[in-house]
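Q: How would the structure tokens look for this protein?
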Amino acid sequence: MSSLVHTIRSAGEPFGLNLVAAVPVRRYDAVVTQPYRAAALDAKAKSIVVIANGGGALWVALRRHAEHHPGWWEREHPLDDFTRTIVEQEIEPVMRQSRRRYTMVFPFMSGTATLNFIELGKVAGLGGPSILGVVVHPRFGPWIAFRAAILVDELIEAPGEAAGFDPCPSCTQRSCIAACPSAAVAFPSGWDIPRCLAYRIESEPDCTPRCHARVACVLGPQYRYPEDELAYHQRRTLAAMRPWYENNLKPPGRPDTE
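A: Here is the predicted structure in token form.
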């Protein structure tokens, strides 16, 4: 592991940003389409450092932060805002001290160029593909998320634990398939998004607090997110996908689902 990657991980780990890896820009650019290539953000960047959380430590840190900052949960995006706060207060000072030129990127940026964080996480070795529609990690299973990236003007290659990880083809249990009440998870086809979304909106509210298939994954069950975090992400995901349902799936004449 490069010294920079190690230092960034040491700065973020106390707050749950405990997965860090780096990949040369050329390797990332080779797997994404033109709008997501690194040059749109920093034409001189040579590598990308990816920062992620594994398990529920980030959420626990957010709870502590919110206790000392009244009104934090009333923000529109409390988790994203907390992530940015930690990156700016704990990780950016590391970058400034290193005297490296860098560009900070977040997956929740809007209205500007960004990176394809899913493909970035895969090529950096922080997550492998799964039939659940999320990436998976050898230790944390499906309980990871990509939170930030740093474009740097130095060539660094420090792959994570999930380099080459592709567990679903050899999984003998596939308990996620039986756990999905809408039969929206299958092998080898993977996650059927329209089927999942239609079920969640039209038929059964019990998917609101958690994704049953994700919870049933045999990888990393001890790192599962806390119940309130599961519900938080489920609500956000459904709210983001609802417009697509309204425009593409809603049967004619069906009343609004808000």
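The chain has a mean pLDDT of 94.

The chain is about 35% helix and 10% strand.

Upvote if useful.
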